[in-house]
Amino acid sequence: MSKLSPFLKEIVKYVKVYGLFVKNCIIAEMEFRTNFFMGVAVECSWLVSKLIYAFVFYNTGATVSGYSPDAILIFIGMHTVMTGVLISFFWPNFSRLTQYVREGTLDLFITKPISLQFMVTLRYFNFGTLLPNVVGGAAMIAVGLYRLDMPPSLYDFGAFILFVALATIVTYALFLLPNLLSFKIVDMGPINQIIGQAQEVNNVPMIVYSKWVQLAGLYLLPIFTISNAFPLFILGRMDSAFLVWIIASPIILLILIRLLWRSSIAQYASASS
Amino acid sequence: MTALDKYTHAFLISFKRTLEYRASFFIGLVSAVFPIMMQYYMWTTLYGHSESNEYFGYSYKEMLLYILLSSIVALLVSTGFEWEISHDIKDGGLNMFVIKPIGYMNYRLFCFGGAKSMQLAFIFIVIAAILTIYANVYHLTFEAARIALFIFSVLLSLLLNFLVFFCLSMTAFWMAEVWGVYAGFGVLSNLLGGGLFPIEVFGPLVNNALNYLPFKYIIYFPITVLTKTLSYDSITAGLLAQACWIGVLYILSRFLWSLGTKKYVSIGG
User: Fold this and answer.
1) For residue A206, what are the domain limits?
2) For position A4, what pLDDT does the model report?
3) Residue A102 lies inside a defined structural domain of this protein
4) Given B50, B176, B202, which is nearest A60 (Cβ)?
């Protein structure tokens, strides 16, 4: 216990600091309310385009590999929630990384008495873009479950939270990975454009893809685990081996991204002096 | 220097700039692969799991061709100058144009034309390759007259989309923060223009409403000239509608510009 104590103290410290980051960002958003409402409006327009996918499945009425349009709505809902997580918790930070490197701001962060990776990758948060996606996505999941005569229970809610947490770690690691190129490339705009489009592959459930694409998206670059794990679990389509992978992959990715981050930082040369 | 010389220079500078930063355009093309791949698998699965040979009036082959062409045409007609206009208005960059004998809208139009001409040439080669492969694999034929009308219609679409976004960019005269308006409008105009799905997907009610808006003439209409069996009368009517919308939006953009410049206060620059 005495050995754990400093570790737990660190955890508490980081949770408190993260709480301050979030509070600070929400205060800033409330100060510039127009930006907040615009963020909500833009995400609502994206939400409409995601709903169109669901609309297409409902209109065709096709049952895909045993998944009815109601089941597919749950997949689209989970993707919507996770899009909110990506663009609210991570994107505001990852998109600044290149600027930090180019302008030498990273030097200032290095001097802070806190993990550099934590500071750089989690400092900013955007509430305006989170709200419509989480509300819209959760509503889609709930509607899908009710229409399947599977009203969500407290257990389902707990599973949802757990799978969102696991998917959040995968999202963090997978989308930080290409952004580490910021240490090598000056203009990340085109790469971010490709990443943004790549993320859209989850607009539809992975069951529509070919076997090889599914395997690559699950085990090589596990992008499909982000939006597909919870729906498969809740619909009783997940076997125990797959569940083990869903739990193990975030841990593996987190270790991998930590090692890559350290390697990138070791090669970093200040641009400011 | 004649008026045309000034704008020809703007055209050439923009053309050279696009050539210099050609990687951005090619990466845009590469990134379009993901939505195309997703839609390919989605429609292949939907048509494969149904007894129906048609969805929303499209056969499997027609749907795939639509998805391919819509992604490419959407990339071609996409703008981006609206952000530059809002910067000019907000940061005082417009001062330079107010004191010089150059029309701002004409300048923007020629810059847009210059940027698009390189893309246009490349994209037409890509489309020609797609049509050739399609004709060989699916044994479809594309009439030369329809291909010519498609090219003409795409050129009108470029002008139409320029005017739509020029009108939109005028909001920067009245609003300090416009990014949300531009981003939200961009998503919806692409959706309603048929950039994601053919507009038949939205059902008859929305389709009726879209008849009274310019969006469907930007992406959907040029593609249907090529892919659907539209009669030549329908094509002519569509081309006339494009021309009418260009006229209406030109008048509207001049009006908004005149209102906006009266409100414009030079700060900085």
Assistant:
1) 32-266
2) 65
3) yes
4) B50
pLDDT of residue B269: 46
**CA B230 to centroid of chain Cα atoms:** 21
Residue A11 forms part of a structural domain: no
* Contact (Cβ atoms closer than 8 angstroms) between residue B77 and residue B219: yes
Whether B180 sits inside 8 A of A207 (CB atoms) is no
Number of domains into which chain A is organized: 1
CB proximity list for A30: less than 8 A, separation 6 or greater:
A36
Mean pLDDT for A143-147 is 96
Using a CB-CB distance cutoff of 8 angstroms, which residues of chain A are in contact with residue B52? Answer: 60
Tokens of B252: 């509207």
In the prediction, which pLDDT does B27 show? 78
Task: With beta carbons under 8 A apart, name residues in chain A contacting B27.
Answer: 190-191, 193-194
The pLDDT mean for chain A works out to 91
Residue among B23, B32, B52 minimizing CB distance to A190: B23
Nearest to B94 by CA among B80, B79, B104, B109: B104
ipTM of the complex, rounded to two decimals? 0.87
**How do residues A44-103 score in pLDDT, each as one tens digit?**
999 999 999 999 999 888 888 889 999 999 999 999 999 999 999 999 999 899 889 888
**Are A102 and A150 contacting, i.e. CB atoms less than 8 angstroms apart?**
no
Which of A37, A63, A197 has its CB closest to that of B35? A197
Nearest-CA distance from B85 to chain A in Å? 19
Residue of A45, A53, A224 to mutate for B, most B C-beta atoms under 10 A: A45
Minimum distance, in Å, between the CA of residue B102 and any CA atom of chain A: 32
Look at residue A270 in the predicted model and tell me its pLDDT.
Answer: 74
DSSP code of residue A30: H
Flag whether A21 is in a domain: no
Whole-structure pTM value? 0.89
pLDDT, greater one: A161 or B143 = A161
Counting Cβ atoms within 10 Å, is residue B130 exposed (0-12), middle (13-18) or buried (19+)?
Answer: middle
- The B residues from 97 to 136 touching A (CB cutoff 8 Å) are none
Of residues A41, A208, A213, nearest to B184 (C-beta): A41
Angle at A197 between CA A192 and CA A202, to 5 degrees: 130
Q: What is the pLDDT of residues B207-235, one digit of tens each?
A: 999 999 999 999 999 999 988 778 889 99
Q: Inspect the interface and report whether the beta carbons of B46 and A60 lie closer than 8 Å.
A: yes
Contact B45 A189 (CB under 8 A): no
Residue A70 lies in a domain: yes
